[in-house]
C-alpha cells in the first residue's frame, strides 16, 4: 500500500526537497503552504516530472480552523496519513530588547504553534489507524544559543523540548515523534544573503560548507520511515558538526 506524507512549508527550500524525495521513494505527498501561487506551481512542476501522486493545499497553519480543514481533506481523500512533516518556519533576528512583540508572536505562531495545531488535528486519526510518524524541523539554534537571535533560539528551543514530551505521550500509540535540527542550509532564502555572509557560514562549519535542502530531506525521510523504527524523541543535527565546538581557541 502506498504511504502518504503531509509536508508543511512545502513550496520551497527543505520542504520542497522533502516533497520530491518522498515522491522518489514512492510515497503520496500532500504539500501544504501559505504561499498558494508558489505551492501550486511547484506541485504542477512535480506532476510534469511524472509524479502523479502529489497534491497541494493552501493553509495558514497558525489557524486552528484551517488546520482542521486540511486534516479533514487529507483523511477523507487518502484514508490514512503515515507521516506529518512539520517543516514550516520563519526567522527573525535581534537581541531580546530589540525584538518587536509582533515579531516574537509571529515567530512562535509559525515555528511552534503550527506544530501544536498540526499534531492536535492529525494525531487522533493516527491513533485510530494504529500509528504513524511526526517529524518537526527544529534547529541547532534550539540546541545552543546564538548571538542576536533571542526569539528564534527561544522558539526552536521550545520545539527541541516539545518533541520529548510528544514522544513520551504517543509512543504507546505506535506514533514516533522526532526532530531534524539543521544548521544554516542552502535554501533560496539563505542564499539571498550577500556572498560574504554565506562564506562566513561555510568557513565556520567543520565540513567547510553549509548543508543542502536535500541532506535535510534525507534526514526527514529517515525519521519518517521504518528505517528509524526505534528512534523516538530525538533531535538529529544536520549541521556538519557546527554545534560541536566549545568555542575555546586552539592551544
TrEMBL record:
Pfam families xrefs: adh_short_C2 (PF13561)
Keywords (A to Z) from UniProt: Oxidoreductase
InterPro entries named among the record's database cross-references: NAD(P)-bd_dom_sf, Sc_DH/Rdtase_CS, SDR_fam
Gene Ontology molecular function: oxidoreductase activity
PANTHER family referenced in this protein's UniProt entry, alphabetically: DEHYDROGENASES, SHORT CHAIN, ESTRADIOL 17-BETA-DEHYDROGENASE 8-RELATED
Family, similarity comment: Belongs to the short-chain dehydrogenases/reductases (SDR) family.
Name recorded for this polypeptide: Hypothetical short chain dehydrogenase
Amino acid at each position: 500500500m502506498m504511504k502518504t506524507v503531509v509536508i508543511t512549508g512545502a513550496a520551497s527550500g527543505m520542504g520542497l526537497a522533502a516533497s520530491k524525495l518522498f515522491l522518489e521513494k514512492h510515497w503520496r505527498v500532500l504539500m501544504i503552504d501559505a504561499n498558494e501561487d508558489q505551492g501550486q506551481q511547484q506541485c504542477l512542476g512535480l506532476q510534469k516530472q511524472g509524479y502523479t501522486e502529489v497534491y497541494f493545499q493552501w493553509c495558514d497553519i497558525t489557524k486552528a480552523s484551517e488546520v482542521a480543514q486540511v486534516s479533514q481533506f487529507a483523511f477523507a481523500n487518502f484514508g490514512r496519513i503515515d507521516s506529518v512533516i512539520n517543516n514550516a518556519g520563519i526567522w527573525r533576528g535581534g537581541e531580546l530588547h530589540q525584538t518587536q512583540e509582533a515579531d516574537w508572536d509571529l515567530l512562535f505562531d509559525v515555528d511552534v504553534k503550527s506544530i501544536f495545531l498540526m499534531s492536535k488535528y492529525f494525531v487522533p486519526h493516527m491513533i485510530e489507524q494504529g500509528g504513524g510518524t511526526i517529524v518537526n524541523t527544529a534547529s541547532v539554534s534550539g540546541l545552543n544559543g546564538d548571538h542576536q537571535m533571542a526569539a528564534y533560539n527561544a522558539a526552536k528551543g521550545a520545539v527541541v523540548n516539545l518533541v520529548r514530551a510528544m514522544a513520551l505521550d504517543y509512543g504507546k500509540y505506535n506514533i514516533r515523534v522526532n526532530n531534524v535540527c539543521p544548521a544554516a542550509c542552502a535554501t533560496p532564502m539563505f542564499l539571498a544573503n550577500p556572498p560574504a555572509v554565506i562564506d562566513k557560514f561555510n568557513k565556520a562549519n567543520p565540513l567547510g560548507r553549509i548543508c543542502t535542502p536535500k541532506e535535510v530531506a534525507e534526514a526527514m525521510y529517515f525519521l519518517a520511515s521504518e528505517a528509524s523504527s526505534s528512534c523516538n524523541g530525538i533531535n538529529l543535527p544536520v549541521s556538519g558538526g557546527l554545534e560541536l565546538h566549545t568555542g575555546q581557541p586552539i592551544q
